[in-house]
Amino acid sequence: MITQNRGIAMAEKNILAYFKSPEQAEKALEQIKALKLIDSSINRFDGYPGDGSDRIRNPITGDFPGLGYLTLGGDFSDRDAAILAAANVSASGMSQSDETAGRDILLTVVIDEDDYEQAVAIAEKAGALV
Q1: Percent of the chain at pLDDT exceeding 90
Q2: Alpha carbon distance 126, 109 (integer Å)
Q3: CATH number among 3.50.30.50, 3.40.228.10, 3.40.50.300, 3.30.70.2750, domain 1-45+104-130
Q4: Which of 13, 74, 103, 125 sits between 20 and 30 A of 116, alpha carbons compared?
């Protein structure tokens, strides 16, 4: 993508950096702001719709719609989707830890092409998976 900045054409590059905490992403963004930053955002994302259970309930006596609601925080309007989510190893707590686990904070950066490598290095040093 090419943008105009004071009459000079600038090439842009995008970075998607995944962090384990908002503080890590904010620390990286503060350092990246010293470069030719065009746009940025920090967002939390989840693979399941809704906020799910906001408090721990006893699954024997509590009224809850399914395992995905309790363990994944999902609100499912479709019963089939709820069953499929409950089949996920993360729902049972039996998942193996891997490099991507817990990285639900996304730092999105649009930066001048000249500063791309430096911005990626800053994000990785701050703990990102880029």
Answers
A1: 43
A2: 14
A3: 3.30.70.2750
A4: 103
